[in-house]
Amino acid sequence: IEIVGAPIFNERSLLKGAVLVLYDITHLKKLELMRKDFVANVSHELKTPITSIKGFAETLLDGALDDKETLQNFLSIIHDESTRLQVLIEDLLTLSRLEKDEYKPVKSEINMNRLVEEVLPITNHAAEQKGISLTVEMDNNISLRADKERIKQIVINLLTNAVNYTPENGDVKLTVTDKDENIHIEVSDTGIGISQEAIPRIFERFYRVDKARSRNTGGTGLGLAIVKHIVEVHDGRITVESESNKGSTFHVYLPKI
Ligand code: ADP
């Protein structure tokens, strides 16, 4: 609380009383803390790959160039870490665009069946590598008015997470249905699940239940923050049900117009 005070005098200039104004700045303080946290997180996330790229490049310059196998190995690390930086920067830009107050989705008529067909090759590959069966169930001719690339991103991010956080040979299922004025996108998996304490936090920027695991799968910790923003700018709703070691189900409801 911030307090601002001023004395009040009577006509003979004698102190009569005082006015105190109490400002509740909890919210402002919270915002300020969140902003500082965000900057610290971004800096850390950028620093990690850059340190690694620099280190491996320097080792190569110092002579490791002569060994073909080491060269190959180091270059592939440099390549992967650069990709990681690129994905992180793309995610940050996406978030910052979505967070602008004046941001309005550019809507067009989307055929969801076609959109899912476009997304599947991207996620199928990762699923196949882990022996995960990815099934799709949807009615014919589901359509809505929305920002197509953004809706695609919702489906990609949720499916990618489902595959990433499900052990080998598990199941991932995408269901799209027409529900009155909404369309309902459901992504369920038989993966590691999310504890009840963690559920409210997973949509925060950079929150990860297990940092090492998320990094290993190429996660930036921004995927769900982006999904939540896209859902919100479309006046939709997102919910999660999950149980540790059993699996998770994400539900997205988007108005059709
Ligand atoms: P990340 O890039 O780390 O996957 P996200 O924002 O997409 O970032 O997700 C935040 C965190 O939520 C993840 O690090 C993970 O701990 C948890 N999470 C997201 N989806 C799932 C899922 N399907 N199953 C289990 N945990 C999940």
Sequence-ordered SSE layout with sheet pairings:
Blueprint: E1 2-9, E2 15-23, H1 26-61, H2 68-99, E3 108-111, H3 112-129, E4 133-138, E5 143-146, H4 148-164, E6 171-179, E7 182-189, H5 211-216, H6 223-233, E8 237-243, E9 247-255
Parallel strand pairs: 4-6
Antiparallel strand pairs: 1-2, 3-5, 6-7, 7-9, 8-9
The structure holds adenosine-5'-diphosphate.
Précis, in short:
The protein is an alpha+beta fold and 257 residues long.
What report would you give on this structure?
It catalyses: ATP + protein L-histidine = ADP + protein N-phospho-L-histidine. GO terms for molecular function: kinase activity. It comes from Virgibacillus kekensis. This is histidine kinase. Its EC number is 2.7.13.3. The chain is α+β, with helices and mostly antiparallel strands. It is built from six helices and nine strands, in the order ββααβαββαββααββ. It has a five-stranded mixed beta sheet, covered by helices on one side. Strand 8 and strand 9 form a beta hairpin. Helix 1 runs antiparallel to helix 2, helix 2 runs parallel beside helix 6 and helix 4 runs antiparallel to helix 6. The chain binds adenosine-5'-diphosphate. The site of adenosine-5'-diphosphate has 22 residues, from helix 4 and helix 6.
The number of strands is 9
Pick out the low-confidence regions. none
Small-molecule binders: adenosine-5'-diphosphate
Radius of gyration: 25 Å
Helical proportion, percent range: 40-55%
Portion in beta strands: 15-25%
Q: Classify the secondary structure makeup into a structural class.
A: alpha+beta
What would you call the shape? extended
Alpha-carbon distance between the two ends: 43 Å
Task: Give the neighbour order of strands across the main sheet.
Answer: 4-6-7-9-8
* Mean pLDDT rating: 93
Helix and strand pattern:
EEHHEHEEHEEHHEE
**Biggest sheet details:** 5 strands, mixed
- How many individual helices? 6
